[in-house]
Automatic annotation (TrEMBL):
A molecular function GO annotation: DNA binding
One of the GO BP terms on file: DNA integration
Name assigned to this protein: Site-specific integrase
Tyr recombinase domain ranges (all copies): 2-182
Family annotation (InterPro entries): DNA_brk_join_enz (IPR011010), Integrase-like_cat_sf (IPR013762), Integrase_catalytic (IPR002104), Tyrosine_recombinase_XerCD (IPR050090)
Length: 186
């Protein structure tokens, strides 16, 4: 699998959402916007069922680690989730595939990881970034680190156990760390 990047410019984050909506529709743009706000792996993001959302929290067991994740939903995530629920009250999954409208007898399922991946990659080419499904998670981690300079906090949010892995994951290079030391004089 090709290495994907965090989106480091906030205007580009918004542009990607706009381009996804324009090219692929609201649902894929919602995957991007909710994914940015929840920092989940794509398999976990797509597996979210409305029954996993209680009050202002999302609770699920992560597929990769089997760890329980309890995430407080911010205003943007709650707003998008509320709109989706209102528009599709019969849906089981937050990002449910519409294929069932045409294929009777199939069980409900979320949209495919492959479809999301292809959409993101195509928009990434358009904006000149190696964009993939992990870009949402990496982007959130990157911006949390830039806002707080607290790698432990980023590690906790991403549920990582190694600083080095987290720094590499969010795209913080030794050059970035050196620049932070040089620029911050106390």
């Amino acid at each position: 699998m090709a290495e994907v990047q965090a989106v480091k410019d906030l205007d580009t984050v918004k542009l990607i959402s706009y381009l996804l909506k324009r090219t692929y529709g609201q649902q894929i743009a919602d995957v991007w916007d909710v994914g940015l706000n929840l920092a989940l792996r794509i398999s976990d993001l797509l597996s979210i069922k409305f029954e996993n959302i209680h009050d202002e929290r999302l609770t699920l067991v992560e597929g990769k680690t089997s760890k329980q994740a309890t995430i407080k939903l911010n205003d943007k995530a709650r707003s998008i989730i509320g709109r989706i629920k209102e528009e599709h009250p019969e849906h089981i999954y937050l990002f449910q595939s519409y294929r069932n409208q045409w294929s009777k007898g199939l069980d409900e399922a979320p949209i495919s990881r492959r479809y999301v991946s292809r959409a993101f990659a195509a928009i990434g080419e358009e904006v000149g970034i190696k964009l993939g499904t992990h870009s949402m998670r990496k982007t959130r981690g990157y911006h949390l680190y830039k806002n707080t300079n607290d790698i432990a906090r980023v590690m906790k949010m991403l549920r990582h156990s190694s600083e080095a892995v987290t720094l590499r994951y969010i795209g913080i290079t030794q050059e970035d760390v050196d620049r932070d030391f040089a620029e911050l004089e106390l």
